[in-house]
Amino acid sequence: MSHIIIYTQNDCPPCTFVKNYLSEHNVEYEEKNIVNDTYRNEMLEYDAFATPFILLNNEPMYQVDMDKINNAFNIKS
C-alpha cells in the first residue's frame, strides 16, 4: 500500500489543494506543517525549499505530480 507525507505551511494554496484532493478521494496522508522546526529541518534534509513537498513511498516529489499520486493510489480522474 502506498504512503504519502505532505510537508505544508500555513496559507499555502497548493498545500490546501493537495490535501483536499486526497481527502476527496479517501486517501489517508500524514501532514507535517513546517511551522514545527523538526518538520522544517526534515524537509531541508531533502534539499526541499518549497511546500508542498511530498514524500510518496519515501521518494521525494519536489513538484506536485498528480499523475504519480493518482497512479500510486489508483485514483481515476
Tell me the fraction of residues in β-strands, as a range: 15-25%
In the predicted model, the low-confidence regions spanning at least 5 consecutive residues are: none
Report helical residue fraction.
Answer: 25-40%
- Order of strands across the main sheet: 2-1-3-4
Mean pLDDT score, rounded?
96
Count the domains: 1
Q: Which CATH top level class fits?
A: Alpha Beta
Fourth-tier CATH superfamily name = Glutaredoxin
Number of strands: 4
The H/E string reads EHEHEEH
Number of helices: 3
- CATH architecture classification: 3-Layer(aba) Sandwich
- What's the gyration radius in Å? 12 Å
Taking the sheet with the most strands, its summary is: 4 strands, mixed
Shape label: globular
The fold-level CATH name is Glutaredoxin
Distance from N terminus to C terminus (CA atoms, Å) equals 20 Å
Instruction: Determine the oligomeric state from the structure.
Output: single chain
Structural class: alpha+beta
Compact overview of the structure:
The chain is of the alpha+beta class and 77 residues long. The chain contains three helices and four strands.
Question: Please, could you describe this protein's structure?
Answer:
- It is a single chain.
- The protein is of the alpha+beta class.
- It has a single domain (4-73), classed as Glutaredoxin.
- 36% of the residues lie in helices and 21% in strands.
- Strands 2-1-3-4 form a 4-stranded mixed β-sheet, sandwiched between helices.
- The mean pLDDT is 96.
- It comes from Staphylococcus devriesei.
